[in-house]
Amino acid sequence: MSAVESATVGRRSPGRLAGWFVFALALTALNYAAYFAGTDPPDDVAYRYSSSVAAVVQFTIMFGILLLIAQSLPMRDAFGLRAPSSWGRALGLVPLTLFAIWGASLVYAQFLDAGEEQGLVPEDWDSSRAGAFAAYFVSVAVLAPVVEELMYRGLGFTLLAPYGTWVAILVTGVLFGAAHGLLIGFPILSLFGILLGWVRAKTASVYPCIAVHAIFNATALTVSVAA
Fold first, then answer.
1. Once rounded to an integer, what is the mean pLDDT over residues 191-216?
2. Among 63, 69, 78, 222, which is 20 to 30 Å from 43 by CA?
């Protein structure tokens, strides 16, 4: 990246940041509106091909809006799509972050049960609908982590970083938690987002964040059907 491009990415961009905030808050408002309207997902959401199709449409639209906000910026740097500053540190932080969020989730569950609130994890295995579940698995464990991390620890972090690293970590973390549209799950999801922001700051890359997010989601789905 040239010195001019580096300066462009590293300076404050109020217009782009405002656009990103509007988008993030709109997602949050839509999800909380659905929550308070009582529109729970069906019990067999993980076994419907329509769930995966809806996810593809949703995340494609999200990514398209992110590209519009980041228009004319160098994409790799705007979204953090570069190699970690240290592969050794990145490889160490991935399991550390996972164990931290799993441990925090276990402690949180002693006081409040956030496991059932989102309703996106199946309660048992249905071998007759394995194909639909496989498609759902890809959308939850691959597509969702990629697009959500590009939004929060990618572009969002980049736009907020000029105002301070911890501002970027905390704001993207809290908005990530809020965007899921949950009440009981909000604190633990915000903590998850903050930990991912910390990983982004420590590695200067979005890739470790995607890895942590993908492993977390994949593990939750696997455990749900294996139990």
1. 98
2. 63
